[in-house]
Amino acid sequence: MSEPLLSELSRPGRVGHLLTSTESTDDAALDIPADLLRDELRLPELGELDVVRHFTHLSSMNFSIDNAFYPLGSCTMKYNPKVNEDVARLPGFAQLHPYQPEETVQGALQVMLELQRLLCEISGFEAITLQPAAGAQAELCGMLLIRAHHRARGDHKRVKVLIPDSAHGTNPATAAMCGYTTVSIPTDSHGNVDLNRVREEADDTTVGLMLTNPNTLGLFEQEIREVTEAIHAAGGLVYGDGANLNAILGAVKPADLGFDVLHINTHKTFSTPHGGGGPGCGPVVARGFLEPFMPKPVLAQRGEGEGELFLDWDRPRSIGKLKSFWGHFGVMVRALTYITLQGDQGLRDISEAAVLNANYLRKQLDDLYDVPFDRICMHEFVASGRRQKQKGVRTLDIAKRLIDFGIHPPTVYFPLIVEEALMVEPTEAETRDTLDRFVQVMRQIAHEVEETPEVIHEAPHDQPVGRLDETTAARKPVLRWSWQDEVVSHQ
Amino acid sequence: MAFVPLTTDERQAMLEVVGVDSVADLFVDIPADVRFPHLDVPAPLTELETVAKMSALAAQNRHVGQLACFVGAGYYNHYSPSVVAHLMGRSEFYTSYTPYQPEVSQGTLQYSFEFQSLVCDLFEMDVANSSVYDGASASAEAVLMALRIARRDRVVLDGSVHPEYRSVIGSYLDGRGIDIVTSEVGLSDGKLKRQPVLDLIDDKTACVVVQQPDFFGTIRDLEEIAAKCRETGALLVYVVGDPVSLGLLKTPGGWAADIAIGEGQGLGLPLQFGGPGVGLMTCKQQHLRQLPGRIVGQTTDHDGRRGFVLTLQAREQHIRREKATSNICTSQTLLALGATIYLATMGPAGLKQAAALSHKRARSVADQIKRINGFRVVNDGPFFNELTVTCPTDGSTMRHELARRGIIGGYALGRDYSGLENGLVLCATERTTDAEIDRLIDGLREIGGGR
Q1: How far is B82 from chain A (nearest CA, A)?
Q2: Which residues of B touch A477 (CB under 8 A)?
Q3: Which of A236, B31, B376, B441 is deepest in the core (most CB within 10 A)?
Q4: How many helices (H) and strands (E) does chain A have?
Q5: B107 neighbourhood in chain A, CB within 8 Å
């Protein structure tokens, strides 16, 4: 069942919405010279019901957390409580202009202040900014803070950033955006970053280390303190990628492990919805000595205690701004709502259940699927489809076969260091029944690999489209509709 | 809140499967002295209590439904048809993620393709990506893109580009050894006075960044700047002010922009105190491979059925790592959906009305302000829905005084432009009523009274 494009549904002269039926707008632009005006405005013309049906049909063509188990590793696809959405839509939050005078937005600034306090407490840090738009921008923020620190000490020779080979691609991409070179550090046989290599590479040209912990293998770095100490001994700082924070809420504060800066993905850990691929929100927490460099403006309070909140722009040592205004406030509201619901006990329970669920799955699959680093994992584990590959079934095929059972595939082919990787993150939100069904389906697929591999190769079977030709999509890109074609097709 | 659904018995049975005695045994890799710290976080609240707490915080704010809103400056209080919020609120959209598995993400992929198409139509540009964080970061990505294409190291910023955008460009470019030159804008004889950008463009310039309508609201003839760009090989980076303005105004494509970006919030998205919005980003076809961010393309499956996929991923961080065009990973997909629904609903007729009515209301504001002693409209040309006014006292004081009268009184220019300390940028939209304009005028007259 396919859905036409808006351009194909369009009919000349159909009107979906009018803002006035009485006021003429024909002469509205007479004071603007004609050569500053546009000639033609070609947009689809649809009725409101056309629009409603179109997008409702499209919505039915998506897997989502609300309709399917979604164990997409590294993405923390947990349930998003509905009340988050209600709170974010309160007019007192949703209908505030960012440039309103501060006296009219004290409640909004209070939301930011409370969220800042909570995130600092949970992570163990003293300084925070809520401004970055998402994790990758938060990484840029963190690395700019680290650069500002080195500069302020007059230390200009640091040019290289150490990054484990298991890291997300955003880490090296961020280091490159800052003009730094990257040094890839291998993973040792236990699934930890290789401490000896860190010690060999860390020197007086080292900006720092970008480290995800738990790492992207779903494993807690067993020598984390030795690693961070080695970087500090060389004068570098340690950037923490907080992508996997969901595993350690209330279990450990990252600041206690030697990190200097850390970003938090609220859409992962704090259940602000993923939105089909955004918006995110990437608060950055840091040690106190990095506070002067935080993006401006920073939230401040006049006088002692209960004084008026305001945005302080007088920050001469700031790295500047990273995005418009104060960050993704609508997302912050959801994060604060979620943390308020959870409280101290709930946060720890989240991590305990997330870790228990992941280990429960791992233990029941590690006989049929290789698990390269088979030790207690945190909130996710990485399996390898290399045994199945020998039978001619790729990890991609297994992923597509899961779709037939109404399960969103895990993250595949990441991390890059695991052959045919399958990265499974169940989150804390799922019932044991859901986990058991996943185990049963994964075991069935493993048997199908032996007995009926053609079924797997043909998967998925009952989706709106089958496997798509991505090669042609990239070689001959069609990135927008063509009105000319539309006219032809209707003649 | 009961968020973890496992029962006590289930937990015990699961621990046995894993082969440990207690949950704490799963965390033994964490150094013991810092394991399970005390968290100074309040005890959990029920949903009922949480709603009460958050509602009380919301009630401490005064929103644009309660105040007369005369500020824009990058975020616009346009009307959003009900259908936009309703359809964006479908959880099949907002609880999915990046469409890594296209067979189960055709909803997201198709609307992203439609979004790209609509943005191209609105801007009259060749290609668009499926969004970046916001207008400001889009401007920085555009400059980085221009630097890669031109392989030069000088950037010219028009001083009437949004100050926050210029600040973000500065942050993104820091440490790259790029020479950033900004044209000055000030006041002379009661009108805005600009240092000509033309004089700053030379054959070492990678790009020139201009905004239209500019931060002061003025619509300018960009022909000479575009010509100078062609002559010197500099790229024209075009920042669209309010996207609704394109219901009336000549487009970035019409001005021959090489890269055109903008903030899409005005296209039916809630203000939300400044975010999330959606960064619109487009370019000419020949620059496609340098465009950052997610891009959706059309293709077919093995049965010839049309479908959509993430494409040209060889530009991106998860493939190219340190050689990627940008580190960007997350886009603003849900907000792009909102803008797509808005444009589909408004169509050409509705969008033209939104633009025309916004302009009319702003003109009405200007006409009446001109008649108040001590106030002056200082735009150096036609404006769209924003105008710059000088007041008898500084802009910041004006804003506080107007707030006491229930009015959000524009953007105060003092922090960003010396010589414009008394300047306010005022904005109107189709939502602005005559009664609100009367209130503004009365307020200005009172505050400026006797001077």
Answers
A1: 10
A2: 288, 295, 297, 311-312
A3: A236
A4: 17, 12
A5: 58-62
Per-residue b or e along A99-123, where b marks 16 or more CB atoms closer than 10 Å to that residue's CB: bbbbebbbbbbbbbbbbbebbbbbb
Q: Does A123 touch chain B (CB under 8 A)?
A: no
**Residues facing B154 on adjacent strands:** B179, B205
Task: For residue B209, list its beta bridge partners.
Answer: B157, B237
- Return the amino acid letter for B174: D
Return d(Cα B42, Cα A423) in angstroms, integer: 34
Q: Which CATH superfamily is domain B68-79+353-447 in?
A: Aspartate Aminotransferase, domain 1 (3.90.1150.10)
Listed in sequence order, the residues at least 6 apart from B23 whose beta carbon sits closer than 8 Å to its beta carbon are A352, A355, A356, B11, B15
Kindly indicate the confidence band of residue B451, based on its pLDDT and cuts at 50, 70 and 90. Answer: very low
Domain ranges of chain B: 68-79+353-447, 82-343
Work out the burial of residue A298: count CB atoms within 10 Å of its CB; fewer than 13 is exposed, 13-18 middle, 19 or more buried: buried
In angstroms, what CA-CA distances link A156 with A147, A261, B174?
Answer: 9, 20, 14
Query: CA A356 to CA A345: how far, in whole Å?
Result: 16
* AA identity, residue A27: D
**CATH classification code of A62-463:** 3.40.640.10
Written as six digits, the tokens of A35 are 């050569």
Nearest Cα residue to B210 out of B253, B256, B244, B159: B159
The per-residue pLDDT for range A106-122, each reduced to its tens digit, is 999 999 999 999 999 99
Other CB atoms within 10 Å distance of the CB of residue A94: 21
Q: Name the residue facing A467 among B94, B103, B328 (closest C-beta).
A: B103
Distance (Å, rounded) from C-alpha B216 to C-alpha B234? Answer: 25
* CATH code of the region B82-343: 3.40.640.10
Residue in A98, A106, A466 nearest the CB of B301 = A466
Contact B31 A360 (CB under 8 A): no
Q: What is the pLDDT averaged over residues B122-129? A: 98
Please tell me the distance from the alpha carbon of residue B161 to that of residue B182, in angstroms, as a whole number: 10
Name the closest residue on chain A to residue B416, using Cα atoms.
A313
Contact B182/B166 with Cβ under 8 angstroms?
A: yes
Instruction: Identify the bridge partners of residue B210 per DSSP, sorted by sequence position.
Output: B238
State pTM to two decimals.
0.97
Per-residue pLDDT of chain A (491 residues; tens, 9 = 90+): 689 999 999 999 999 999 999 988 888 888 999 999 999 999 999 999 999 999 999 999 999 999 999 999 999 999 999 999 999 999 999 999 999 999 999 999 999 999 999 999 999 999 999 999 999 999 999 999 999 999 999 999 999 999 999 999 999 999 999 999 999 999 999 999 999 999 999 999 999 999 999 999 999 999 999 999 999 999 999 999 999 999 999 999 999 999 999 999 999 999 999 999 999 999 999 999 999 999 999 999 998 778 999 999 999 999 999 999 999 999 999 999 999 999 999 999 999 999 999 999 999 999 999 999 989 999 999 999 999 999 999 999 999 999 999 999 999 999 999 999 999 999 999 999 999 999 999 999 999 999 999 999 999 999 999 999 999 999 999 999 998 654 444 33
Judging contacts by C-beta atoms under 8 Å, the chain A residues touching residue B84 are none
Whether residue A365 lies within 8 A of chain B, CB to CB, comes out as: no
Contact A51 B345 (CB under 8 A): yes
List the single residue in A25, A409, A473 with the smallest CB-CB distance to B297.
Answer: A473
d(CA B153, CA A73): 40
Among left, alpha and beta (phi > 0; psi -120 to 50; other), residue B278 is beta
